From TrEMBL:
Pfam families: Acetyltransf_10 (PF13673). The keyword Transport does not apply. It comes from the Bacteria. The keyword Transferase applies. SUPFAM superfamilies: Acyl-CoA N-acyltransferases (Nat). Residues 6-148 form the N-acetyltransferase domain. This is GNAT family N-acetyltransferase. It comes from Paenibacillus lacisoli. It is an enzyme of class 2 (transferase).
Length: 148
């Protein structure tokens, strides 16, 4: 059971393959969203992953300011379906926020949240900054966390 944070260059070929496989399984297959999963932002991002017995069970892509938004961002947040309900999403978010605030020194984090997860992200201090809109036929809302 290990949490790891890596730059794109630190990922092995097998790790990158496993990450892309899990992201595609959740966002393209499970959520029925045919879209360009490999979007060119991975090389500029940090990759936070949790593994058990070599398998990735949780993952988030941490984007420095200027990659997706003027603010830092957290994206591609996934917990493998078989590992849901164990608190991994909360720990994943806690670690993601801590890295961006403490290691990158950023005070604002912007996310594009699926609307049904608004309260989950709100529990970490994220507040809506947009109305609800459709992205790939899924209701989303932009949210921002500001550190005092």
């Amino acid at each position: 059971m290990t949490w790891e944070l890596k730059t794109f260059e630190q990922l092995t070929n097998l790790e990158l393959y496993a990450i892309l496989q899990e992201r595609t399984a959740v966002f393209v297959v499970e959520q029925h969203c045919p879209y360009q999963e490999v979007d060119g932002k991975d090389p500029a991002s940090y990759h936070l992953l949790y593994r058990e017995e070599g398998r990735i069970l949780a993952y988030a892509r941490l984007l420095p300011p200027g990659v997706s938004y003027p603010e830092a961002s957290i994206g591609r947040v996934i917990v493998k379906q078989s590992a849901r309900g164990r608190g991994l999403a909360k720990e994943l978010l806690r670690r993601s926020i801590a890295f961006i605030q403490q290691e990158l020194g950023e005070k604002a984090i912007k996310i594009q949240a699926q609307e049904y997860l608004k309260d989950f992200y709100g529990s970490f201090g994220f507040a809506p900054v947009s109305g609800v809109y459709l992205e790939d036929d899924i209701p989303h809302v932009d949210m921002v966390l500001y550190q005092e």
